[in-house]
Amino acid sequence: MAITDWPVDDRPREKLLSKGAAMLSDAELVAIFLRTGVSGKSAVDLARDVVAQFGSLSALCGADQKTFCNIHGLGAAKFVQLQAVLEMAQRALGEKLKQGVALNSPQAVRDYLRLRLHHRPHEVFVGVFLDAQNRVLAVEDLFSGTLTQTSVYPREVVKRALHHNAAAVIFAHNHPSGVAEPSRADETLTATLKRALALVDVNVLDHFVIGADSTMSFAERGIL
User: Fold this and answer.
1) What is the pLDDT of residues 81-117, one digit of tens each?
2) Which of 23, 52, 102, 184 sees the fewest Cβ atoms within 10 Å?
């Protein structure tokens, strides 16, 4: 049955307009993004298949071009559209952070860092530099690759903090494995950075580990 034959209240677009985007299922949101289905499948049917094949909305959004385009009904044009949507969301959250006080909107910080990092195929170490009022001064990718105490240089982090005249910093890095749990190396690195930055009066407020579907906070875990 075509979506146009459904009851009006069940159609994804009309449902979004009447009830809000939060009331839609993952498949319904993807259906609106896809706009059209394929032969024998409505946009919603195709969206359900796509979400099922990827396993989660997060995995769909983080898919590389080859994996995305290999799914029947998708393609390069939709991949480009998705990347544009994700980049717009990341920039909008970044603007929101810079307009306010980061610690007054911890969920915005998490959401922004998840969008920035969860899809990266390798580990990336990010610094969010803050002023004395905890307003965001800058967000930088500081290091990438396999993150260890020998690949993340405290001296370079201190230099970037001084460059921005930062009073505090929030760190974040992703785990491409998908598990948002800190390793012993992560804990050791964080302690080393905290000591180095304390010498120049810069506070380390938190360190987030970004997984596939969750985010872990060192401060909330009590290990900062």
Assistant:
1) 888 888 888 787 777 666 665 556 667 788 888 888 8
2) 184
